[in-house]
Amino acid sequence: MTIKQLLGISLFLYLITGCITSHKTTYWINSVKTTCHTATGEKECLMVKKGADLDNTTWQSFMDTIAGFEFEVGYLKKIQVKEKRIQPESPLGSLVKYTLIKEVEKQFDYMHYLDKEWVLTKMNAQVVDLMMALPSLEINTIKMQVNGNGGCNIYGGSLDSLTENIIKFGPLMSTRKACLNDNIESVYLKLMQEVSRYQIKNDCLLFFNEKGDEILSFTPKPIEKVAINNTNKRLHDIWITTSINGGGIKRLSAVPYLEINLTNQQVYGFNGCNEFQGNIKAVDVLNIQFVDFSSTIKACEEPNSVAFMEALSKVNSYRLKGVQLTFFDMNDNVVLSFIKGD
After folding, report:
1. Neighbours of 66 (CB within 10 A)
2. Fewest CB atoms within 10 Å of the CB: 14, 191, 237, 299?
3. How far apart are alpha carbons 64 and 94 in whole angstroms?
4. Quick check: 88 and 101 in contact, CB under 8 A?
5. Same structural domain, 318 and 215
6. With bands split at pLDDT 50, 70 and 90, how would you rate the model's confidence at 121?
7. Which of 191-195, 230-234, 273-277 has maximum average pLDDT?
């Protein structure tokens, strides 16, 4: 075999390898992220679905990054991505490099809008009696779970089916308290099992049965406002994190901090990677709860950031001692500790 023939074969193999190791793929990106467990710890990950359509979507965690892609909470994005096989920089590195080619489609995710607490306003198209204990509903589209209060008992169950307009609940289980107050719980739970479709209209959540009849209507649960004079005013300050879930802050890591603003009923801060803000749902001399967090979306390998936000979402009560602030979850476990920042 001549040198010219060898060079020709080498070029042919190179071209084939190039075609194999780099190709174009279509992805749908979910409107929310999830928590991934990796060899180096937990981190926030995209949820993706390969393919051009969203029918019968099963989302998968995506631990890598897509160069050039900008994630937006609340929006589904259809994108084209170049996948190229590479030599990883470390044993734990990815074998594939993902690069955005173009964003094909962007649409508001109504399912993301479901992820909140709702209060019943109508049943069978009739306004409910406001003098009764009103049923509530909380939907988690990531875990495909639902829970709430029927007006007396706490209930919960699974989401068996969910698309942009279809929703069906699995069997709902509830506690069995003897309810002395007037309530509509039994009728409400029966109608919940008949739900097959939904619609978001004027910020309200409407449920319909198979016939298309509107059977339940909800409005977002308002954030509770509390009187500051019934609150420990020393909370209104900046707090530097000293421990997360009982463990110390890793050396050389960015230190998260928290600013509690009782006047605006809000919380702000830095989680070690991104700036964030949220609302104070309830606060008094012993208890405090936070909701509706949002943050910037920088890609970081900072170990504290995810753990800090997860711990903050679990906070149920607190203790102030001198310049030290400690947060506890609903089981009285220490989740966060701080020292006064100024």
Report:
1. 21
2. 14
3. 7
4. no
5. no
6. very high
7. 191-195
Residue 115 burial (C-beta neighbours within 10 Å; 0-12, 13-18, 19+): middle
Residues 104 and 117 in one domain: no
For residue 165, give the CATH number of its domain.
Answer: 2.40.128.270
Q: What is the mean pLDDT of residues 285-306?
A: 81
| Count of beta carbons in the 10 Å neighbourhood of residue 326 | 16
Neighbours of 321 (CB within 10 A): 7
Q: Residue-wise over 216-234: b if at least 16 C-beta within 10 A, else e? A: bbbeebeeeeeeeeebbee
Q: Which amino acid belongs to residue 337?
A: S
Q: Which segments of 112-265 are extended strands (E)?
A: 117-123, 126-127, 136-140, 145-149, 154-162, 167-169, 173-174, 197-201, 204-208, 214-220, 238-244, 247-248, 257-261
The predicted model scores a pTM of 0.50
Shared domain check, 166 and 88: no
Same domain, 35 and 64: yes
Q: How far is residue 36's CA from residue 175's CA, in Å, rounded to a whole number?
A: 33
Q: Which amino acid belongs to residue 143?
A: K
Pair (155, 168) in one structural domain:
yes
Residues 232 and 215 in one domain: no
Q: Which of 60, 78, 108 is the last residue before a domain boundary?
A: 108
Q: Given a cut of 60, is residue 14 above it in pLDDT?
A: no
Return the number of other C-beta atoms located less than 10 Å from residue 192's C-beta. Answer: 20
Can you give the residue range of the structural domain that contains 82? 3-108
Which of 108, 142, 161 marks a domain boundary? 108
Q: Tell me what the pLDDT averaged over the chain comes to.
A: 83
For residue 6, what pLDDT is reported?
A: 47
Tally the domains of the chain.
Answer: 3
Do 26 and 51 sit in the same domain of this protein? yes
In one letter, which amino acid is 152? C
- Each residue of 41-91: pLDDT tens digit? 777 889 898 888 876 567 788 888 999 999 988 888 999 999 988 766 555
Q: Which helix (H) or strand (E) holds 110?
A: helix 110-114
Confidence of residue 2 (pLDDT cuts 50, 70, 90): low
Cα–Cα distance measured from residue 115 to residue 189, given in angstroms and rounded to the nearest whole number: 20
